[in-house]
């Protein structure tokens, strides 16, 4: 099984600041990683697929990078609506998710 | 755009069977794609339960395979989930989603999930 470890668990930032979220895989997943945003009481929303491709209607302030075992989701300048929990997920016949990073208002 | 909506009982007794349906709007299931179920226990992370191709091929999380079945009804444009012998550990918000995937021989490669239904809370309690 591939285990995805996200860090930090919580990120406390102010609107306008840059957010850098990490997802590390226990073995190489090539570039086959997706990122989701989840707000309280809502379903996850796809942000990034295949490590760096933004999904439909996702703002340009969201970007993804990485390959192999180390991946990063960057939010260049936090907007108030960006606060929530972010999950990574790897592509597989048995897809699994990381434990999440909560981005909260400082 | 494609929309998904889960429906089913919000309370199930221990040892009984959990049954949910996901109705798809603005897209015909029979056209293509995989369709899947995921769940999230309260305050916890996400778990993939299983996925079904519109022609009926099913794939399940190995940890749940013995208790889970997913079926598709293309005439009514919905797909369904059954989980047997439920316990309190099955209490979760259950989501359905469209699945982007690639076929493989005897398996599938599940890429990402988009869009998702809003989710429905199922509580297992007597």
Short description:
Chain A has 106 residues and is mainly beta.
Task: Name the overall outline of chain B.
Answer: globular
Number of helices of chain B: 0
Oligomer: heterodimer
Shape of chain A: globular
Low-confidence stretches of chain A: none
Query: For the residues shown, what is the average pLDDT of chain A?
Result: 96
Low-confidence stretches of chain B: none
How would you state the average pLDDT of chain B, rounded?
95
The helix content of chain A, as a percent range, equals under 10%
- Give me the secondary-structure category of chain A: mainly beta
Radius of gyration of chain A: 13 Å
Give the C-alpha Rg of chain B.
14 Å
Helix content of chain B: under 10%
Describe the sheet with the most strands of chain B: 7 strands, mixed
The biggest beta sheet of chain A is recorded as: 6 strands, mixed
* Strand order, sheet with most strands of chain A: 2-10-9-4-5-6
Structural class of chain B: mainly beta
Can you walk me through this structure?
Chain A has strands at residues 4-7, 10-13, 19-25, 33-38, 45-49, 53-54, 62-67, 70-75, 84-90, 101-105. With 106 residues, chain A is mostly beta strands. In chain A, the strands form 2 sheets. A 6-stranded mixed β-sheet of chain A has the order 2-10-9-4-5-6, with no helix packed on it. In chain A, strands 1-3-8-7 form a 4-stranded antiparallel β-sheet, with no helix packed on it. Chain A starts with a strand and ends with a strand. The mean pLDDT of chain A is 96. Chain B is mainly beta and 126 residues long. Helix content of chain B is 0%, strand content 57%. The A-B interface holds A 32, 34, 36, 42-46, 49-50, 55, 87, 89, 91-100 and B 45-48, 59, 61-62, 95, 100, 104, 107-119.
């Amino acid at each position: 099984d591939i285990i995805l470890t996200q860090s930090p668990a919580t990120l406390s930032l102010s609107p306008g600041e840059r957010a850098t979220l990490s997802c590390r895989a226990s073995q190489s997943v090539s570039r086959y990683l997706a990122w989701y945003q989840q707000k309280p009481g809502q379903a996850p929303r796809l942000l990034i697929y295949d490590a760096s491709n933004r999904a439909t209607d996702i703002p340009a302030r969201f970007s993804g990078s990485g390959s192999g075992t180390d991946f990063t989701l960057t939010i260049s300048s936090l907007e108030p609506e960006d606060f929530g929990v972010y999950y990574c997920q790897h592509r597989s016949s048995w897809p699994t998710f990381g434990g999440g990073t909560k981005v909260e208002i400082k | 755009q494609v929309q998904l909506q889960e429906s089913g009982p919000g309370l199930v007794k221990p040892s009984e069977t959990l049954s949910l349906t996901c109705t798809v709007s603005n897209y015909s299931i029979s056209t293509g794609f995989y369709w899947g179920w995921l769940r999230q226990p309260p305050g916890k992370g996400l778990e993939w339960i299983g996925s079904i191709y519109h022609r009926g091929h099913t794939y399940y999380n190995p940890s749940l395979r013995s208790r889970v079945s997913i079926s598709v009804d293309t005439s009514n444009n919905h797909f369904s989930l059954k989980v047997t012998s439920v316990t309190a550990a099955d209490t979760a918000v259950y989501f359905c989603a469209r699945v982007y995937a690639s076929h493989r021989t005897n398996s599938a490669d599940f890429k990402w999930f988009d869009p998702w239904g809003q989710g429905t809370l199922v509580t297992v309690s007597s």
